[in-house]
Each structure stands twice: as C-alpha cells, then as structure tokens.
Amino acid sequence: MDGYKLFRRDRQGRRGGGVALYVRECFDCVELGDYDDKVKCLWVRVRGKANKADILLGVCYRPPNQDEEADEAFYKQLAGVSQSLALVLMGNFNLPDVCWKYNTDNFLTQLGKGLVGDVVVGGRLGLSDHDMIEFSICGEVRRGVSKTTTMGFWRAGFDLFGTLVERVPWETVVKGKKVQEGWAFFKKEVLKAQEQAVPMCRKTNQRGRRPAWLNRELLLGLWKKRRVYCFWKKEKATQEEYRDLVKSRREENKKAKAQLELNLPTGVRDNKKRFLQTY
C-alpha cells in the first residue's frame, strides 16, 4: 500500500499463513529479529518523537492446536522484547477457555484505560471469518524522568564565582600549611563558591538533543536519504544511488561540524556560554 511500510513473516513449510503489519512511512520504526520458529509472531519498535517513549507493536497468530512448548516459547519471546517498552499486542490467539460472553466488556474497559483507546469491535475484512477490532494508540507515554542531578553550568553565575574566590585571603590562610592541608583548604573554598554560583538541575536524556551543527538544510538531506532508502527497498531506486547519497550526506555533516568547531573560538569571545551550548 502506498504510504505504508510492510513488515511480514510468512509461515514456513506450507502455502499461506503468517503475520503482517503495515506502518505509515512517517513513523521511524525497526523490526526486531531473532525469532523462534515455533512462534508465529512479528515485533516492530516504533521510535517516539521528542520526549515520547518508544512503542513496541506485536502481531501474533496462535493456532488452536498449539502445544504447551510453543506457548512457553511465546511467553519467553514476549518477556524478552517487551522489557521497559510500552507494548501493544495484536493478533488471533485462539483461546477457547476464555469466556468472552461475560469478560469481553471488562477486557475492553481495561484495554481502553491506558495505552489504547477508542476500541470498536465489529465488521469483517474481505472474506475473513474473523471480526475486526479498531482502536487508537495514545502516544502520550513519556520517557522516564531522570532523578539524577547535575550542575547547570549554562546557568552559572561566573562573575559571582570569581568574586567569592577572590574574597579568600589565600596568601594568609595557606601560609605555613603543608601541601595536602593547603590543597584540602583550597578545594573546600572552591566547592563552597561553586555551590553558591552554580545551580543544580536534573540530568536530561541527550538522546533527543539535536547537534548544534545540524541545520535545516542538513535535516532536509537526512529526510531525503530516508526517502531514497524506502524507494530502494521498494526497488524504485538503485543501491548505488542510495550509497552515493549516504556518502554525500556524511561528508556534508563532517564539513558542518568542522566549520562549527572552527568558528567556536571566535564566537566564545562574544558569548562565553556558547561552548556549553554546543557541547
């Protein structure tokens, strides 16, 4: 289908069967491999944007006559891929022991409270004898906020720090002290000044931070590279075209980074915090 990426895992050893998943091309996603042949499952990780967490999509088909060994293999696979990820698991599990007559409403109520909402059951796709389930994935799951604190040098009062250090009569207090004693006193006074001049803040995840040299032109180039990659997978572009584009984008990134580092020393004269903003 146009505008979608297809992920599929066909049944081995016979015609027909298997699982498949279509994901819109606007989403950055990757398929998780290393499958167990006993389990008919497909796992795709959708990367979250900004501070949103990644979401794991799973599609599974469980035959009605599946044995306990295959069930245990599925549980093991599910535990391995779903660690620290929000999980949306879909498929046909063929569980005859579930009493859907009395538990369906409760199941859908619990399903709609968290990651998934707007659940609608009904209708069939094509000639299939299975009912469809439509739902929306609520992308409000956020990455865990770090409780680790660090010094926020970009908000530091360096003038205050210098003033506090200059107030100490160093020649008088250090005179007559041994090297180790003098160092301990010096360290104590500097840390005391640092505590007053440099605020503490929570350490943020640098994963989503954009490099300072990555301008709008380079971002458009990266978008074009991903687009050509999709064309290559669909056999609408050649591998040589994709490789040449990757090489040119890599060279442009290197030049942009080198130019930024070349201009950094002169820029620091006008803005002393520019180095901290860059790195």
Would you tell me the overall average pLDDT? 76
CATH H-level superfamily title of the largest domain: Endonuclease/exonuclease/phosphatase
The count of helical stretches stands at 8
H-E order: EEEEEHEHEEEHHHEHHH
Proper CATH architecture of the largest domain: 4-Layer Sandwich
- Major sheet: arrangement of strands: 3-4-5-6
State the name of the first-level CATH class of the largest domain. Answer: Alpha Beta
Label the overall shape.
elongated
Low-confidence stretches: 104-113
Helix content: 40-55%
Q: How many strand segments? A: 10
Structural class: alpha+beta
CATH topology of the largest domain, by name, is Deoxyribonuclease I, Chain A
Radius of gyration: 29 Å
Q: What can you tell me about this protein's structure?
A:
- This is Endonuclease/exonuclease/phosphatase domain-containing protein.
- It comes from Mycteria americana.
- One of its GO terms (biological process) is cell adhesion involved in heart morphogenesis.
- There is one protein chain.
- This protein is 41% helix and 20% strand.
- The longest helix has 32 residues, at 239-270.
- It folds into 3 domains: 4-137, Endonuclease/exonuclease/phosphatase (Deoxyribonuclease I, Chain A); 149-202, no CATH class; 210-278.
- It is elongated, with a radius of gyration of 29 Å.
- The chain is of the alpha+beta class and 279 residues long.
- The strands form 4 sheets. The chain has a 4-stranded mixed beta sheet with strand order 3-4-5-6, with no helix packed on it. It has a two-stranded antiparallel ribbon with strand order 1-2. Strands 7-8 form a two-stranded antiparallel sheet.
- The two termini are 43 Å apart.
- β1 and β2 (18-24) form a beta hairpin.
- The protein has helices spanning 68-81, 100-112, 158-166, 170-174, 179-197, 216-233, 239-270, 274-278, and strands at residues 4-10, 18-24, 29-32, 40-46, 55-61, 86-92, 116-121, 133-137, 149-151, 200-202.
